[in-house]
Amino acid sequence: MLRQFKFLFISFRPKQWIKNLFIFAALIFSANLLNLSLFLNVLKTFFLFCALSSSIYLINDLFDLKQDKIHPEKRKRPLASGKLKPTLALATAIFLALFSISTSFWISLELGLLFITYFLLFVLYSFILKRLAILDIFIIAVGFVLRVMVGALAISVSLSHWIIICTFFLALFLGFAKRRHELIVLGDNHSSHRTSLSDYSLHFIDQMISVTTASVVISYALYTVSPETIEHFGTDKMFYTIPFVLYGIFRYLYLVYKRKEGGSPTEALLTDKALAADVFLWVLAVLVILYFIPLSN
């Protein structure tokens, strides 16, 4: 039984919880990171959202059980390999979904509505929407935007449209890179695993990656120098963080095209030291500029 719980926890995909760190974006960029009360609110919401996202991962693995068994990497997952009982996975998914959604409604009506919107959207994605080329990537991008919105609601702050734009473009970039990796890894069997892959080609995806790469860099650069940003933060130094974003994008493109990686942004961040160091330095630069430089002016 203990082994079942071990495989169940693996199926929660705790490494993927890194994506949920986007929930902290509103806290950081509203200059409230040092507010202990608000920080604890966001931290509580973060763990609650991790429970919700894990329920969706379980539902997705149950639905994709047959396809995952023929995938060179996903066949090692507990459900696909037969190590985890589907009945236990389903019961846990239902419990996590009910617990996280009901608790979010208890915190606030608006937060609960966002939680249930995310849940329904990605259940629908697991069953239908991921079969539709381009729209499947847009849904993934919307999921990241919803994470940022959840973080903003947790501390009752308004979101800058720049944060939404930058998040959306970055998620599109990562999504198309993931589809490119799947096309290469699965080869001629790609359509048997994911229907939408038959509507993609490497040439088309490369074009989309080029478009989203430019969109991420330009939108972030404009964000750092916009009058709205300068007025909000009381500093014009945010543009110093642009090189970190550029390097991060270029490094990820290197991993995608040179090392044939990019299937999982989380894995890339955890395993590529250069990318991890760049993200750390970007976060450090943002914190120094937003929380210390304005105070010295």
Structure explained in plain terms:
The protein has two domains: 14-159, Tetracycline Repressor, domain 2 (Orthogonal Bundle), CATH 1.10.357; 160-297. The protein contains 15 helices and no strands. The protein has helices at 2-11, 25-29, 36-63, 65-68, 86-107, 109-127, 135-154, 161-186, 190-193, 202-225, 227-233, 242-257, 265-271, 273-291, 293-296. The termini are far apart.
**What is the CATH class designation of the largest domain?**
Mainly Alpha
The shape, in one word, is globular
Sheet bearing the most strands, described? Answer: none
**Helix content, binned percent:** over 70%
CATH superfamily of the largest domain: UbiA prenyltransferase
Overall SS class: mainly alpha
Rg computed from alpha carbons, rounded to a whole number of angstroms: 20 Å
Q: H/E element string? A: HHHHHHHHHHHHHHH
CATH architecture of the largest domain: Orthogonal Bundle
Integer count of domains: 2
Which band does the percent of strand residues land in? under 5%
Kindly, what is the distance between the CA atoms of the first and last residues, rounded to a whole number of angstroms? 60 Å
The CATH topology of the largest domain is Tetracycline Repressor, domain 2
pLDDT averaged over residues:
90
Topology:
Layout: H1 2-11, H2 25-29, H3 36-63, H4 65-68, H5 86-107, H6 109-127, H7 135-154, H8 161-186, H9 190-193, H10 202-225, H11 227-233, H12 242-257, H13 265-271, H14 273-291, H15 293-296
Helix pairs in contact: 3-5, 3-6, 3-7, 5-6, 6-7, 7-8, 8-10, 10-12, 12-14, 13-14
